[in-house]
Amino acid sequence: MQVSFIGLGTMGLPMAITLVGTGFQVTGFDLDPGACQRLEKAGGKVAAGAEEAMVSADISVSMLPEGRHVRDVLNETTLGVLKSSTLLVDCSTIDVTSAQELAALATRHGHGFVDAPVSGGAEGAAAGTLAFMAGGAPDDLARARPLLEAMGAKVLHFGAAGSGQAAKACHNMNCGITALGVCEAFALADGLGLDHGAFFDLCRNAAAQSWILENRCLVPGPAPEAPASNRYAPGFAARLMAKDLGLAQDAAQSCGQATPFGAEAARRFAEFAAGDGGDLDFSAIYRTIREV
User: Fold this and answer.
1) What pLDDT is recorded for position 291?
2) Is residue 121 left, alpha or beta, with left meaning phi > 0 and alpha meaning psi from -120 to 50?
3) Hey, which CATH number is domain 165-288, 1.20.1600.10, 3.40.50.300, 3.50.50.60, 1.10.1040.10?
4) In the predicted model, what is the mean pLDDT of the chain?
5) Beta-bridge partners for 6
6) Residue 7 contacts residue 32 (beta carbons within 8 Å)
7) Closest Cα to residue 143, out of 78, 84, 99, 88?
8) CATH 3.40.50.720 fits domain 2-159
9) Contacts of 206 (CB under 8 A, 6+ apart)
10) Any catalytic annotation for residue 243?
């Protein structure tokens, strides 16, 4: 099966390399020559542009920063020259409306479309253990499933096109709110003189356990592999969390649901990302709550 992969960034490159390693014939493209070279070294092919990569693909995967980048790639001209019934799988995190519009555009050109944003971070991308939140027609998802299962441990279908993005917005809003809660709990524990390691062990083995706590322990020390213990080197950058929380607020407004905790998380992360913290891991927001 011929697969094109557009966007070889922090997530896209390990996802593409995982596909190569599981037997897919992958042709990739990215504006970063270094990323393209790493894909070639792993056994993939590289195209000179997105359209060249996509034109002979059976399935085309995109993993791009924002909706405008996805729309630039999946445009009228490109979709018009693809193989008949190419399946487009967008793994980017974008707004629900854009995903629905792209699905409609793909349908007009005779192509399938699945929106399949991911959870699991760069670690999950490299290990092939991502979780995919998918939206699209059942037949399109059935075609996409072998590829998604090669890159992930879980594929959840939420309904029609756009519902994968809706699920991602809700999921990441939960993550942002949880991160601030973990921050405040550790800040209070520190203020009360509690040992960080002992408090971490308590929380991870009690009702306060969460993925955020386990994988993004927000203070240096208790979890040596966490970004906090490595100068907050990004696993998932704060600017991306800010973007996703903004998308969640757009989604909340579209259906009239009040999300006051989500709104506060969006405000706090947007403020943090606009300063010096944008390229740090999102867990570095702890620094705005307690000095480390």
Assistant:
1) 85
2) left
3) 1.10.1040.10
4) 96
5) 29, 62
6) no
7) 88
8) yes
9) none
10) no
- Given the residues 41, 83, 154, 168, select the one marked as catalytic: 168
* The predicted structure's pLDDT at residue 188: 97
Alpha-carbon distance 61 to 56, whole Å?
13
Query: What's the Cα-to-Cα distance from 258 to each of 94, 115, 143, rounded to whole Å?
Result: 21, 25, 37
> Could you report the per-residue pLDDT of 21-59, keeping only the tens digit for each?
999 999 999 999 999 999 999 999 999 999 999 999 999
First-to-final CA distance of the chain: 50
* Contact predicate 30/12, CB 8 Å: yes
Of 119, 74, 125, 141, the closest CA to residue 101 belongs to: 74
Cross-strand partners of 88: 60, 113
d(CA 72, CA 7): 12
- Helices (H) and strands (E) in the chain — how many of each? 13, 9
Cβ neighbours of residue 277 closer than 8 Å, sequence gap 6 or more: 238, 284, 285, 287, 288
Position 271 confidence tier, pLDDT thresholds 50, 70, 90: very high
pLDDT at 215: 85
Please classify residue 130 by burial: count the beta carbons closer than 10 Å to its beta carbon, then call 0-12 exposed, 13-18 middle and 19+ buried: buried
